[in-house]
Amino acid sequence: MKYSYVLLREKDGEFYIGSTGDFGERFQQHNKGRVRSTAHRRPRSLIYYEGCLSADDTARRERYLKTGRGGRYLKQRLASWLTEIRSNKLERH
Length: 93
Prior knowledge:
This protein is 47% helix and 25% strand. By secondary structure, the chain is α+β, with helices and mostly antiparallel strands.
C-alpha cells in the first residue's frame, strides 16, 4: 500500500500534504525534524490519510489534494473535526 496523508500544525492550522509507502516511518521523520519541508514547523498531527494500491494513484491523489479544489475537498471532508479543534483551541486561551 501507498499512502497520501495530511498533517496539521495546530499552532496555525497549516496543512502539510505528502505521500509514502511506509507511513509510520515517514511520520516519525516528520516529528523528529528529519523532513526539511516540515522541520521548522513542528509538531504536527495526522488528520487524514488514504491508501492506494498503486504508486501512480497515490502520487495523483497527493497532487490533487495540494490544489485549491483538493484543499476545499479536505476542508469539507474534515469540517466537523476542524470546527471541534478550533473551538477547543479557543477554550484553552
